[in-house]
Every structure is written in C-alpha cells, then in structure tokens.
TrEMBL record:
Signal peptide region: 1-19
TM annotation in the entry: 609-634
Protein name: Peptidase M1 membrane alanine aminopeptidase domain-containing protein
Taxonomic lineage: Bacteria, Bacillati, Actinomycetota, Actinomycetes, Propionibacteriales
Domain of life according to the entry: Bacteria
Species of origin: Tessaracoccus aquimaris
Amino acid sequence: MLAVLAGALWLATPGGALAEDDGLFETNDTRYVVAADGSPVKVTVDLTLRNTVPDVRTSGGVRYYYFTRYLVAVPTGTQNLRATSNGRSLNVSLEKAPDPAFQDIQTAAISFPELRYGKTRSISLTYDLQGADIRSSDLSRVGKGYAAFITSATGEAGHTSVEVVAPKSYEFHASSDAFTETRSGATTAWKSTKATDDLGIWEFVTLRDHDLAGEATVTIGGDTVRLLSFPGDDAWSDFVADKLTAAVPHLERLTGTPWPGGLDTVVEDVSPTVTGYAWFNAATNEILLGEELDTHLLVHEASHVWFNHNRIGDRWLQEGLAEVVATRIGPTIGGTEDPPTAPSPTGKGAFKLSTWSDPEGRAGETDSYGYPAAYAAVEELIGDLDDESFAEVVSAALGGESAYERPGSTLNRSGTGTRRFLDLVEDRGGNASADATYRTWILDEGASALLDERAESRKLYRAIDGSDGAWQPPKGLRWLMTDWQFSDADELMGDLDATAAAAGQLQDDAAAAALDLPASLREGYESADVPSGYQESGKAIRAAIDSVAEVDDATRAVEEAGDPVSELGEAILGTDAQVDASRAAFSDGEFAAADRHARTAASQSRISGLLGIATVAAAVLALGGLTVLAVALLRRRRPAVEPAATTPFPPGPPPGDLR
C-alpha cells in the first residue's frame, strides 16, 4: 500500500498556531479518464474546503485563523495543471513530495485568498497525466492500450471518492477490492469510496486492452506463440522470443518430457505492478508478464506450461519446481543465478506449505514467504541430483506415476501432489532425509504424525517386497501405499506375509531347478487387489512350489540314472520325453499334468536299470544262440567226398617247341 501525504496547510496570525491538518474539513472527488489512443489521462479533482476553527476573543481583540494554500498529491508525469474556484483561476505549482521515499508522488500547491472560520471554498483542479517511459523507475505508465498510475483522494471519511473511466474493452486491476464497476455505453467506470487510511483513498490501478498491442510470433516445439507487447516495445518482444526459444530445450531436458504444447500467447501487461506477480493461465494458455526483461521470471513462468494444476496438484510444488528449474536454467541462457534466500521456517509469517492456496487477486504476505520457502523445500528434496536423475524424478511426477510401480508403468497414475511426490523423491531420487524436509517446511503437526505411521508401513512394505523376490507386491497393497492408507495396508501386509515368502521361495526353487515360471503366476500375484485374488494367488503359488519339487525330483532322478544300462532302459520307456513333457507342462502352468509326467518319469527311472539289464541279457542270449546255430548249420552243410586217385599227366613238349 502507498503511504499518504498531508492534505492541508495553514496560515494564521501570530495569535496562535495549528497543526498541519487541524481545522479544515475536506471533501474530495477525483476522476481519471483513460483514452484508448494512449493520450494523457485526463484528471479532475473536485475539492471542498471549510475552515472549522472558530475565532477567539482575547483581551487584545480577536484571534482568527485562516488557510491560504492547499496541497494535492499528484503522480509524477503530471502536466497542464489548472485550478479554478468560483469561475476564477487560482495559482497552482508543482512541488516535490515532503517525503523523499515517495518518488512517484508530487504535490500540486494551490493558493487562494484567506479562508476564514465557517467559510467554504470549492476548487476544481485539472491536469494531464503523461506517464513515464517503459522500464523507468517511475511507476506511472500511459500508452495506447495500457495505463498504470496512483490514484488518490484525501479528505474526511465518507466524503472522498476515486473514479477511473476507460473504454469498456479495458481490463482493470487495483491494489484493493474496494472498486465497484459500472458500465455505460462504450465506457466502464470503476469507483471507490472506501478510505484506505485516516487521510483518505490511495490506490494503484492498472488498465490494459490486449487487442491494442504490438504483435510478433515465435515458433516453439512446432507451435506458433503470439507475443503481445505494448505498442512499439519491440525490445520486450525480441527478448521474450530469444529467451523462450533458448529455454525450452533446457526445460525439456530437466523435466524429462517433450514440449507439451498449451502456450498460445505471452502478454506484456501492467497488472503485475498491482497483483505482485506474473502468471501462466492454463485455461487460456497464456503467460502474462510485466515489462521487465527478466530471464529468471520468464523461465519460471514458461516452466508452468509443465508445472500446472493439470499435472501437479499443490501450489507449493508447482512454484517450488518452477523456481528450482528457473534457477538451474537461467545462467545457461544469459540470465543471472540469483536463487531466493531461504526464510526461517519458524519465523514471523511462516506457515506450512501444504496450506498455501492459490492467489486471489493480489499477492499477499503468504506469497512473500511461500515462494522462497517452496524453493528451499524443493531444493532440499531434489536439488542435489544431477540433471539426469533430477529429470527422472520430475518426469515421473509430471506423468503421475506411483513410486510403488515400476518406472514408466501406466498403472495407478494420477496427478502428483504432496504425498506422491514424497514417495517419488525417496524411491526414485534416493533422498533418505526427505521425511525431515517435509516436517520442516511442508506438513503441519497433524500431518507429520501421519509420517510416523508411514515410516512404519514402509518398513513392512520393504519386508514384503524383499521376501517376494523379483516380483512386485500385489496391486491392492501398492495402491493402498500410494494413497497413504497405512492402517489398511498394514492389515493386508499381515495377511500377505506368508504368500510373499512363498512367492520368493517359488522363484528360488524354480531357478535352482532351471524351470521357467509361467507368467500367470507372477501376473496373478502382482495384479491381485481383492481378498479372493490374494487367496487364489497364494493357492497357485503353493501348488507351483509342490510341482517344482515333483518336476525337479524327477529330473534329478533321471539325470542320476546316467549309466548306459539305465539310459538304455529309459530310452526304451521314453523317460526323457516324460521329463520334457513335465517341464513344458509346468512352464505352461499345467501343474497337474506336470506332476503326472514327473511321476511317470520317476517311476520309469526306478525300473530303467532292470529293464536295461534284461534288455542286454536278452540281447546276449539271443546273440549266443545264433552263434551255436550258425556253427551247426555250417557243419551240416559240408560234403563227405572221398579223395580221387592221382593220374599222372602225359609229358609235355620239349622246351622251346611250342606251336
């Protein structure tokens, strides 16, 4: 709020002296008319002054008091002052404000003839308000489609008013909610009669017509974004286009998600001077900024294209993430690294961030604590992570993931709020002290008690998750833990303890037996979310454990009977086929068939040796009989021939006489 300057000066005869504002009754009705073309604001101040200090008779005569000058507070940039009373012009001049702290205020000093006791003077003061240059230290602004200035009307309570008139296309903001709106033809009037302090009305007002703007465009992620500046403020449009283009790739990297779209317009406006903040409006896909060329602020607001109520449920988390991300990115694109100074979480004005609500109209005392506190909390939670790990946590939060599901799972997704984020910070971000941060900055004592319950439940959950091997605990339990329903979760974990241990045993037994577990077992266990599902899953797991034993025993029995004679018997019986059928049936979840084949294989294995011996013996006997028979046959077939008499050959021809 703006402080008030004195309303009246006095002059008196040497007979007595009065305080500055004693003895003067003042009424003040001030009217400001804003034009669409950006010409100076026309201001009219209608004053009525009445001297209420009676004359005093003394031994030397009559002592009387009178006023000859009156000071009216006017904004800097005031021109063409003119004061009239009773149809006559009065002398009026501009002077500096008595208090140098009010650099945006001047005083118009109006001189008039003596105003004696009981007398009244009506004065009309008119002037033009030119406004200062964009981005100057003076707060007054007047241009085509926009205006911002201090309004004032000092006087008696109930006898002052401020009225602002502008084309009906203008939006109006003020430093209080005291103004009422009246539409008439092509204009709208906003009027306040409520004193802001003992001396009258002091309000800062802003007006903007977004249709009267300079327009440029920039392409972001394939989307065309309009940049609506004050007419002629190309420096602002160029700045926004350059920094927004540079910031978005970094935002994609740190959030772990691509440009989501949903930004149509970035608007330069005077209203942040009144409201105390810029903003992103997810309903209109619009960022509204002041005239400042502030890299950090632009990145902060651009990050709300990601961090908004559509994805992040609580204000402290939206603003904390935006501030941490802007602090990381700003220096990389030419901004300065100037993180907020952490306030005391127990100091004056401190509150638990989970109670920080969305703004309504103007920033208040809660915002002056909330923004730096939210930054401090989020920085403690994930600020130490490198960019890649930071993005893993943030992308999971933006995706509404549950920390109790596998990364990237689409199960159990919802908007991320205070509770889900803590789970993600601990489980995905590895922050073991996140609980303490929540107690310090975020949750009140009642909610902090829930953290104690949570800690105990998470111990039980980790035990369940450890005993059930590589499988996830059942869905029903995961959902209870995600929703912080710890009493119900604890009860369920008591019921699931034996089943979880059996699930772990089954996985170990199957691995030792080199058996592939049917997918239905894991699916049934992990997807169970009602009592019947838990019971059916437990029953199937125990049946599978028994079947693993049957199949493994049969497999081992067959393998141990590895001598050639037994293998011969197994080959004759088809035992290996029974083992293969048993293992295949197990992997298909057909445990009865697996057990049947396993028992058959085991039974065959027990007799395979005898069968092999018998087979070999039969073969030997059969081979021996064939040998005797062959000898007998050979003997039977040999002829009994007597030797023939030897007859000498006749002599041959003499050597060399061959014809």
